[in-house]
Amino acid sequence: MSELRYEAPRTLEAAVALLVAAQGVAKVLAGGSDLLVQMKSGRLDPALIVDIKGIPEMTAITTENGGFRVGAAMPCMEIIEHAAFAKTWPGVTEAVALIGSVQVKGRASIGGNLCNGSPAADSVPALIAAGATVRIVGPAGTREARVEDIVTGPGRTSLAKGEIVSSFFFAERPSHAGDAYLRFTPRTEMDIAVVGAGVNLTLDDSGVCTDAHVCLGAVAERALLVPDAAAALLGSKVDDVALALLAAAASAAATPIDDKRGTREFRIKVAGVMARRAAAVALARAKGKQS
Amino acid sequence: MDTPNFYPEKKLKVIGTSPVRPDGVPKVTGIARFGADFTLPGMLWARILRSPHAHARIRSIDTKKAEALPGVKAVMTCADLPEQPFAYVGPERIAVNFWHMTRNIMAREKALYEGHAVAAVAATSQKIANEALKLIEVDYEVLPHVIDVDAAMRPDAPLLFDDMITRGVEPPTKPSNISKRIEYKLGDVDTGFAAADEIVEMSFRTAPVHQGYIEPHATLARWDADGQAEVWASTQGHFVVRTFTAKLLNMKTGDLRVHATEIGGGFGGKTVVYVEPVALVLSRKSGHPVKIVMSREEVFKASGPTSGASMTVKIGAMKDGRIVAADALFKYQAGAFPGSPVMNGCMCGFAPYDFPNMRTVGYDVVCNRPKAVAYRAPGSPISAFAVESTLDAVAKKIGMDPVQLRLKNIARIGTPLQTWCRRRMALRSSRPGLPIENRMASGRLGRNNRSCWLVA
Amino acid sequence: MKHHVTTSINGSPVEFLCETQQTLLDVLRDELQLTGTKEGCGSGDCGACSVTVNGRLVCACLMLGVEAEGKSIETIEGMVMGDHLHVLQQKFLEHAALQCGICTPGMLIAAKSLLERNPEPTEEQVRFGLAGNLCRCTGYQKIVEAVLAAAVEMRRA
């Protein structure tokens, strides 16, 4: 009979060692809101579960070089309730706030949301637009990577056996910077994104956009950075002309599938709509206005 | 809140007050016991093995390895349930056929939908029961399947039952997936359409919709060595559980005591049995009480939603809004066994209205889905959706307010129902118990010398 | 693999044995006979299994029993206060915020957690805050009214 092992290491080194030594499928347990569901449905039948919530650096937010280091296993609710982080990164925070219910957010983490590899994951477009990086700890040591380099396709990551995403780093914000995340769902709440759009932009003192990142979710095999949409904003004051070009570029980049939540055509159109609206919110925040 | 007092001269004790429901305190404190909340000493956990195929012949089932697993106390298949006679029993609209019912409880010749119960085990823990399911070997011959009602009606569709002849058609047809055809009519729709100023015809497709009760089916059953048995079940009607379960097990009804637990929603979906006969058989075989709780996945895969349907409604109207002809075709999916609520749907469709010429044809069609079961006003919202949508289109076409269109054609006392006229000859002289108004109404002649029957 | 877990449930110390794959919900219901917490879906979608763990609202079906080690868990059974009901329970009764009652324990735990975090919620905040709790009977209106009424009374106290 299959015997499912459970271990709760106290250090990253111990966790890595357990994963490396595992015979058969070994899974990291953070919030469990993806893992337990997949085990129950029979999609996953691991031999070993490694619970990393007892490792201090994985569940803490610290300030670092003027930015934030967020533990990968931190429950979403704790990110949302972190006043300083929420104020600095309202777009990332509102994306995190859309991951399921209050109950799910009491356990779910951005590390899990990223590494589960769903093309529709809500935090990922905002994390990528924010330029966040991840620290990865593994048998070969520690390395840094960009968030957009982690997911390689639906349910697949570029992590090697034994590697764990331990934290996310958000660099110090320049002044006149703002981010936003919007999504379209058939229901008001508790649903999976048909389109998600994360926008992060920076203005100079005269209101001209000097940096921009636009990332779409749920319209390709993984979250999609759209350089053309960002380019449409650079050098502009993010006026209607620039926003229209951004929307067109977002729609042009989207390569969605048809499924029960939305058709290909619908998603392509809404990608442009959501990207434009998110950019407008990010602009207002960059100007210091209430969104 | 202000409750109006309709009886100002009376001193009322309950009406006009907002009493707290008598089962309220147990429910808000978590004490109320629902189907899955019951236990008995020595209780075993049961799990059901379900077909992964939508349509397959079952060549053989080998349960030896499961039976040998330590902790497994009983295993069952259809061989543990007696065969039932093939007969539609009870009033036509809600007839049951135990030959079908026993096969829905546990598949015999074929698995007819993905999720169809094929075998079951009872063990000392849920973990062991789950492991035991993996050890049951079923030899399936996978067959082509059909899940769409129009596709199931095509002459080349895979047949669920090789000998299903459509009831309600003379002369009898060759075998098909059409279990029954119903037709109601009043007047002559062809004459009516010929006279109409405007005609609208629309087609509709609806999907099966599950009742979505939050509490999955659950039961605890205990069979004592003297043949007396007790069942706790989450159900909308414990008499039904007792009658059906006793019949399915060839028991005397009086030997089975059924307790209806608190029920976490049913909405029609818990008016039948799924797990109760299985739990009882496993209890008999093991000598222990047996508990079965469906998972949410099992609820959606293996318990009845209401039917999906394919429908066409054609309505002919005069410019002033009088509707002169209405013709409807309602094709309902029954799921794996006959018994969709198509008859209800046919009876309801045009019932609110006074149309002089009506025809409604309904088909009950089997397909490789879980057997449909009642869902609040069974069958009627489906046909009403088609009829009302078409009426709205008619209103738009003739430039009339949709409410006014309906009021102009609304049924009144004396309006004939097309369903009554199907039986008017039989009933005309035989109802002395009817209230006075009915007898007066039934004495009047309506349009074209047809009888008018009271519609209240 | 069997685990011996030491925890606190509704203020009392509790120990139990569980398999790795048993969720906290399985443990509460099947090992500890605390059947007030309900299973509706097993996948964190319906909220009927809502409990709090160290004051944090979670779905018990999405947590392993072994993870309860050293934690403090509150279930519906702990909500009643001696011989009288919690204000929320009282308001649910007065406002007819329940029919079949299967969602009620989870709804009450979620509402209690919501009011602890936000004692003066708007209607919109209540609706979004309880979005993780599904009800198939009431249509939610009376639940929202009961929670808002309880909030008023709890602020007065």
Write a compact overview of the structure shown.
With 291 residues, chain A is of the alpha+beta class.
Task: Tell me about this structure.
The complex is a heterotrimer of chains A (291), B (456) and C (157). Chain A has 291 residues and is of the alpha+beta class. Chain A has helices at residues 12-21, 35-40, 76-80, 83-88, 90-96, 102-105, 110-115, 123-129, 227-233, 240-253, 264-286, and strands spanning 5-7, 26-29, 48-51, 61-64, 67-71, 133-138, 141-146, 151-153, 156-157, 164-170, 177-184, 195-203, 209-217, 224-225. Chain A folds into 3 domains: 5-51, Uridine Diphospho-n-acetylenolpyruvylglucosamine Reductase, domain 2 (2-Layer Sandwich), CATH 3.30.43; 56-170, 2-Layer Sandwich (Uridine Diphospho-n-acetylenolpyruvylglucosamine Reductase, domain 3); 177-286, CO dehydrogenase flavoprotein, C-terminal domain (Enolase-like, domain 1, 2-Layer Sandwich), CATH 3.30.390. In chain A, the strands form 4 sheets. In chain A, strands 4-5-10-6-7 form a 5-stranded antiparallel sheet. In chain A, a hairpin with a 2-residue loop joins strand 6 and strand 7 (141-146). In chain A, helix 5 (90-96) runs antiparallel to helix 8. Chain A is globular and about 60 Å long. With 456 residues, chain B is an alpha+beta fold. Helix content of chain B is 26%, strand content 23%. Chain B has 15 helices and 15 strands. In chain B, strands 3-5-1-12-9-10-11 form a 7-stranded mixed sheet, with helices on both faces. A 5-stranded mixed sheet of chain B has the order 7-15-14-13-8, with helices on both faces. In chain B, helix 10 runs parallel beside helix 11 (380-398). The two termini of chain B are 33 Å apart. Chain C has 157 residues and is α+β, with helices and mostly antiparallel strands. Chain C has 2 domains: 2-78, Roll (Ubiquitin-like (UB roll)), CATH 3.10.20; 87-156, Orthogonal Bundle (DNA polymerase, domain 1). In chain C, 34% of the residues lie in helices and 17% in strands. Chain C has helices spanning 24-31, 87-94, 104-117, 123-129, 141-156, and strands spanning 2-9, 12-19, 50-53, 56-59, 72-74. In chain C, helix 2 crosses helix 5. The longest helix of chain C is centred in the C-terminal third of the chain and has 16 residues, at 141-156. Chain C is globular and about 45 Å long. The N and C termini of chain C lie far apart (48 Å). Chain B binds chain C through residues 18, 20-21, 23-34, 36-37, 39, 126-127, 212-216, 262-265, 267, 293, 295-296, and chain C through 19, 21, 26, 29-30, 33-43, 46, 48, 75-77, 79-80, 85, 89, 92-94, 96, 98, 100-105, 108, 134-137.
